[in-house]
């Protein structure tokens, strides 16, 4: 699947951040995310994600995606994708000269139909190491990651993403990112994506957020994310 790993990341960006949900709180997302490349389309429509803070500096994640794929031959598939769960732990707090740091292992279960292009057909593991630093209204975060990607003709690979964002008060932010993914198949090529995004608060409990960008290396195309975030 084109950019299959990138379709599971930190809303609304492909790059994730190290900041967990506050202890005892929930953060939920209802969203769609997709990639268009040379007439082929794939993505998640819709998908639901829930994050919970069980204790300080920690976050548990669950994601239930409905995946879709439309090939160049016009064939369309739609159904349950690969379920995902993760655990984020921030082990260094941000200081005046020190960025906050976290590790965020995530596991995908092979619940999507691989023959239809809706899943990988194998258990997969992703382990990113994440950094973040804020200076006034500016925040920047990102880091490297490693995917365990088993299966015939497939290979393990690395990712690296970095994002910069500007907050305009407490209700609105704009950002941009660059995300690179290594080749996930034998003889394949990696990809690189540039996205711009926003987050707009609609009161204390809801926000709308999204990104749009271009895959400018590898299987070139376009990427989009649109979602609603809830906070309790």
Which short descriptors sum up this protein?
232 residues; mainly beta; Lipocalin; 14-stranded antiparallel β-sheet; globular; disordered N terminus
Question: What does this 3D model show about the protein?
Answer:
The structure is a single chain. The chain is mainly beta. The protein has a single domain, classed as Lipocalin. The protein is built from no helices and 14 strands.
Overview in brief:
This protein is mainly β and 232 residues long.
* CATH-derived topology: Lipocalin
Cα shape: globular
Give the N-to-C terminal Cα separation: 34 Å
Uncertain stretches of 5 or more adjacent residues: 1-6
How many strands appear in the DSSP assignment?
A: 14
State the helical fraction. Answer: under 10%
Oligomer: single chain
Query: How many H/I helices?
Result: 0
What is the topological layout?
Blueprint (H helix, E strand, L loop, with lengths): L25 E12 L2 E13 L5 E13 L5 E5 L3 E9 L7 E4 L2 E3 L15 E12 L2 E11 L8 E12 L3 E10 L9 E11 L4 E12 L3 E11 L1
């Amino acid at each position: 699947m084109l950019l299959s790993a990138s379709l599971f990341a930190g809303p609304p960006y492909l790059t994730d951040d190290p900041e967990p949900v506050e202890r005892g709180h929930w953060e939920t997302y209802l969203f769609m995310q997709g990639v268009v490349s040379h007439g082929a389309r794939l993505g998640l429509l819709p998908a639901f994600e829930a994050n919970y803070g069980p204790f300080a500096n920690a976050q548990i994640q669950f994601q239930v995606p409905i995946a879709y794929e439309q090939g160049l031959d016009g064939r369309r598939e739609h159904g349950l994708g690969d379920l995902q769960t993760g655990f984020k732990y921030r082990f260094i707090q941000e200081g005046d000269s020190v960025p906050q740091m976290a590790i965020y292992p995530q596991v995908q279960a092979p619940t999507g139909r691989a023959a239809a292009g809706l899943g990988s057909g194998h258990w997969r593991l992703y382990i990113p190491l994440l950094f973040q630093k804020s200076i006034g209204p500016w925040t920047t975060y990102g880091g490297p990651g490693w995917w365990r990607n088993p299966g015939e003709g497939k290979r393990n690979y690395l990712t690296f993403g970095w994002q910069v964002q500007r907050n305009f008060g407490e209700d609105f932010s704009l950002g941009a990112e660059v995300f690179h993914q290594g080749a996930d198949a034998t003889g394949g090529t990696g990809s690189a994506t540039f996205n711009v995004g926003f987050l707009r608060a609609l009161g204390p409990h809801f926000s709308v957020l999204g990104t749009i960008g271009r895959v400018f290396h590898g299987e070139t195309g376009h990427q989009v994310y649109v979602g609603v975030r809830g906070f309790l």
